[in-house]
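Incident log, structure service

09:12 report received: a user says their structure output differs between two submissions of the same chain.
09:20 pulled the input from the user's history:
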Amino acid sequence: MFIWYLAYTPVQLTSSPTSGLLLHISSLPGSYGIGDLGYEAYAFADFLHAARQSVWQVLPIVPVGHGNSPYSSPSTFAGNILLVSPDLLLDYGLLTEDDLATSADPRPQTVHFKQALDLKHKVLSTAWRRFSEGNFAELKVEYESFRVKNGHWLTDYALYEAIKTVQNGSAWTEWPAGLRDRETTAVADFVLGRGPSIEQIMFSQFVFDKQWTALRAYCDDRKIALFGDLPIYVAQDSADVWANRDIFFLDAAGHPTVVSGVPPDYFSETGQRWGNPLYRWEVLKSRDYDWWVARMQRILDQFDLVRLDHFRGFEAYWEIPSTEATAVRGTWRDGPAEDLFESLERHLGTLPVIAENLGVITEGVTRLIDAFGFPGMALLQFAFDSGPENGFLPHNYDENIVAYTGTHDNDTMVGWWTDTSSTQNADQIERERQYCAEYLELSDSKKNFSGSELTWKAISALMNSSARFVITPVQDVLSLDSSARMNTPGTTDHNWAWRMQKGSLTPEIAAKLGMLTRETHRARKAN
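09:34 re-ran on a clean worker, output below:
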């Protein structure tokens, strides 16, 4: 049974027009194979402050899963230890200079997930040993407080990770039956003699939480809201499903009986079979959605704003029998809709939620969004395939919108313009690009304008719209091409690895962005 949640004081959405940037923590510069919560994160917050930006959006900060994706995590509650800063561990006195002497990354242009994970495990192991053996009285009080507050998920996650390590990384459904089914005797026998390794996993989560909390406080001092991302579904091979089997459609061995996805459409004849286990919403309803309340509380403890990915699934979702290889043979099922969000608001107050409402959206989804006043999303890259009535064109935005040039799932603006792999025919591509050039008032000949002109006029068009929020990926601020793309949906290779180069965000860019922000009345007041 899931343990009940703690109290939470809600954050209220601002009604004033504002703007910010999208950059995941892993994409920051740094010396340890991946961006982290150390000095470069604070430097980026300083850049946002100098550029008069009020929002920093990131991707999920949970551990990465299949394909290094933060959207396929082994835990929706845990933090990603890849993002822990060794430099800050040095500041805490948990590492020495010698511990980091051979840790510098000679290739900082991209994320090196395996090398970075090996390094983080090594330094966290060293930090844990010093912590457990040393005199860190104040830090130990903080650690115990963290354990008490987060015990409802932390113990399960630490056990899951410890067992998974002993089982050579195999999925929990492949573990010995006693551990798979969380039998009391089998779990107790496993824990016997493994206490320190389980404690180290908890300690690593504490370190992540301590570093994240410090960064959030730094951003708060500069009036920068942190904007997070919460996928609707969780991964099958996760501590979430292993520890809460009763709220998912699973068979006796823990395998899903039905899975998530979306039906066939214009873009895919077989639809998309995502494979996540589906929720038993009636069971959750009978418990007043306690697991979802705890999940939402956890992310609101970390962020000021939250994007709910695949929002449509809360109103109705596509159920696919797990025996099906594609998404063709599925059934629409009713989601929890208003009932879930009414429960969340009873327990947590007004929700600072952004609804990811891209794709085919029904009247029911629109009614659900409107009922709670959640802002929706608009992407400029989707605006030019039809005429002036296209809802993604900036002149058609209403106030309750978060406007983007593109998201982590899109190409950069420069990459979008130069893309030659589109499934559209050449004439359609030409019409789309021509309309874009006219709408943004680019140079007369598309051959003569620069990528910088394209991206900055795109940003300006969004800034001058009625949208309450304008969020621009840093790649577009830097006018980068497709090599800087973060993710290509439907693929598993070469995603999530882009990193910004140190010094890319110059004072000149900050001044340019700050001026545009002031001119469009989106700037926060100077401190």
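09:41 both user submissions now match this output. Likely a transient worker issue. Closing.
09:42 reviewer note: Residues 130 and 195 are 16 Å apart (CA to CA). The chain has a mean pLDDT of 93.
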